Amino acid sequence: MAKKGSKALDTAMASIAPPLIEKLKQEIDHFTPRQRGLAEFILQNPESLAFLTITDLAKKVGVSEATVTRFCGTLGYDGFAHLCREVQETIQSELSTVGRFQLVRTMGRHSVETRSPSAFERVLSTEIDNLINLTQTIRTVDFYRCVDLMAAADRICVIGSMASSCLASYFGYMLGKIFPEVDVLHGHGGKASTVYNRLSQKSLVFLISFPRYPKVTVELGQLAVQKGAKIIGITNSPVSPVVPLATMTFLIPIGIISFVDAYAAPIAFLNALVTEFSERNPDATQQSLNLFDEYVSREGLFIKSGAKNPGKRSELPE
Fold this sequence. Notes:
Elements: H1 4-13, H2 18-27, H3 33-44, H4 54-61, H5 65-74, H6 80-94, H7 97-113, H8 119-137, H9 140-152, E1 156-160, H10 165-176, E2 182-185, H11 190-198, E3 204-208, H12 215-226, E4 230-235, E5 248-251, H13 264-280, H14 282-299
C-alpha cells in the first residue's frame, strides 16, 4: 500500500509544467526516434528536469547533448536551461513545502544509488548557477535606473513576507545605515498603517516575493500603488503576482534545491543596490556611517576584540 505522502506527491507531479507536458503529448508522433525517446522520458519523469544536467539527461536517454539542445529548440525553448527553469518555476509555485521536501528526498535517493553529488555539492552548484544566471538576466541600464529612483525617493519601504522576510530585513538594515527614511514591513498591523500613511508619490517601495508568493506582500503592494508610490518588484518569474504592480521588475533566478529557498542571487543583487547607492554620494554615505558608528560605540552594541566575555563568570580562587 502506497504511503499517504507518496500519493500526495504523485498528485502534485501531475501539475508540473502542464504547457510542456501538453506540447509533448501533441507533438510526440512527429518527433524523430531520438526526440521521441526524450519526450517519453520527460513525460514519465517531468520532475527530474529540475535536477538533471543536460549531460545526465543525454546519458539516461542514450542521446547526445546536441540532440537534447535541438529538441529544446523544437519545443520553442532557447535551450535546456530555459526548459529547466519552466519546470523549476512550476515546482516552486505549485508544490507545497512538504511536496518539495518529498521530491528532493526522492531525487536524493537516486543520487545515493548513482553516487551523484551530495546535498552540499548540489546546493553550492545551484547557487553558483543562480549567480551566473543573475549576471545574464539583469540589464545594467535597469540596475542604474533603479538606483536613480532610490536617490530621488523621499522614503523607501521594503516589503517581504514569510521566507522573503529575511531578504527584506537584510536589505532594509543595510540601506538604513546610509538612508534615513527606510521602513521594513513583513505583514499587516499597526506599523503597516503608519508606514502606509507616510507614503507619497515621491516614495519608492520594494516588493520582494518568491514562490509561493505570500498574499500579504501583494496586498501591501496594492496599498502602496494607491498612494502613488513607485514600485520595484524583485521576484523570479514574469507571471509573479507582483509584476503587474511594479514600475519596473527584476527577475532573479533562485532554482530549486529543496523546501529551503536558494537566496544567494537575491542577496547579491540587494548588496549591489546598496553598494551602488552608497557610492553615488560618498560624502553623505560617510556622514551617515559615522553617525551609525558613534551610536553603536556609545551603546556598546558590539564586543570589541580582546575584551573579556561579559557573559562568562569569573573564576574565584579556591
